[in-house]
Specification:
The structure is a single chain. The chain is α/β, with parallel strands linked by helices. Helix 2 runs antiparallel to helix 3. The longest helix has 45 residues. It is elongated. The relative contact order is 0.11.
């Protein structure tokens, strides 16, 4: 067998004869061989460059959707992602590729970027296309917020309470001792109950979190300002029958006796130094209505077997607000007694009111948000769902994440 050195020597002689040959056949053959070789090298280089460009574009798009999904509205999410992507991508693209962004019904922000990677060797340009989807950290809706930080028994649940609110959280800011009491014989079907204080009495074995990071009042500085003018109505009394009321300033007490049917026309009802009292047997309905309780003496009282269907405006100054009051009022009691077969919607913003709900049956607080000083629940069957102004709290899932 020939040695390796001998083989190499023979090979060297062949190549010397090849390159030393001056005949046209060898030159043409070698030139032709260079064409596919050059093309292959060019394709490899272009493919490598396109692959590198795709990787950088993917990283930029990932960062863009993560930055965008942090914003609170769909328009702001898309705008933030577009701006982020263009500013970063132009640094290595020269001219940023086309990028589109959209938000789906689950709040996930998806981006797609596409451009052409230019060939270094004049061959066909290569398409670069990447996609990315980010989801925000999970959030929950707070339907009931009790804001009095020093109120003892700020949330009191007595026997016979059935609260069905699986999409809602209840947050209690009290740090008193006890901050809340839960008695046996009741059911709280809520997503979460968060008590800021550490001291509670839990006789009912409820699932409750103490020392919890309850949210602060998000409406404290954002409620509409109301200019209260002269009284339009003073100390009205309505007996059984059909009654229609117009918006305006209601001073003193407006009483509804016996039984009857009340229709409230759309608009703002200002209750000044008095209130409206609905007694047994009345049916009260109003769409597009808002109640403004001017002072601590202003109140709405529901007594006996009252059937109520109320919803707020869907647009304008008082959009989604059913009932509210000015800031800084002293604490007063607000009882709701014996309401049955009722439905209410909208924001009830009454941070000075210590609300007691008694003997309420078959009531839907559909799309409702409640902010009270404190709350006592006695013998009720109550269904609550998050409203348009539902307060949002972190669900504990951490930072936004890429899901694609």
């Amino acid at each position: 067998m020939a040695s390796i050195s001998g083989c190499l020597a023979s090979a060297g002689q062949v190549w010397r004869r090849f390159f030393g040959d001056r005949s046209g056949n060898f030159a043409v053959f070698f030139a032709l061989a260079l064409v596919p070789l050059t093309a292959a090298v060019g394709v490899a280089v272009d493919y490598h460059d396109a692959s590198q460009l795709r990787s950088r574009t993917q990283e930029t798009l990932d960062a863009a959707v993560l930055a965008g999904v942090l914003k609170s509205t769909t328009d702001d999410q898309i705008r933030q992602a577009e701006t982020f992507f263009i500013v970063q991508a132009v640094n290595y693209w020269g001219t940023a590729p086309t990028a589109t962004f959209s938000v789906n019904s689950q709040g996930q922000l998806t981006g797609t970027a596409q451009g052409m990677a230019r060939s270094t060797f004049g061959l066909a340009d290569l398409s670069v296309k990447v996609t990315a989807t980010a989801a925000a950290a999970a959030t929950s809706k707070v339907c009931i917020l009790l804001v009095n930080p020093s109120k003892s028994q700020s949330f009191l649940v007595n026997s016979g309470v059935a609260l069905n609110a699986p999409q809602c959280e209840i947050h209690v800011l009290s740090t008193a001792n006890p901050a809340a009491i839960f008695n046996s014989g009741s059911t709280l079907g809520v997503k979460r109950t968060c008590i800021k204080g550490k001291d509670i009495i839990n006789n009912g074995g409820m699932s409750v979190e103490t020392n919890c990071a309850a949210i602060s009042d998000p409406f404290a500085k954002s409620m509409p300002k109301v200019s209260v003018g002269a009284c339009d109505f003073n100390n009205q009394v309505y007996n059984p029958g059909n009654v229609t009321l117009q918006p305006g300033v209601y001073c003193g007490w407006t009483n509804f006796n016996g039984s009857g049917k009340l229709t409230l026309k759309p608009g703002l009802y200002i209750i000044n130094n008095g209130g409206m009292t609905f007694n047994s047997g009345w049916t009260v309905s109003g769409a597009g209505v808002t109640f403004y309780l001017v002072d601590q003496n202003a109140t709405l009282t529901f007594n006996g077997n009252v059937n109520t269907t109320l919803s707020p405006p869907t647009s304008g100054t008082y959009a989604n607000i059913l009932m509210f009051e000015p800031a800084g009022l002293p604490n007063t009691n607000l009882p709701i007694n014996g309401t049955s077969g009722s439905s209410i919607q909208g924001l009830l913003y009454l941070p000075s009111r210590d609300v007691t709900i008694n003997s309420v049956s078959n009531v839907n607080a559909d799309k409702t948000t409640m902010v009270f000083s404190s709350l006592i629940l006695n013998t009720l069957n109550w269904v609550v769902a998050p409203g348009a102004l539902a307060m949002t709290t972190s669900g504990g899932a951490g930072s936004p994440r890429l899901i694609q």
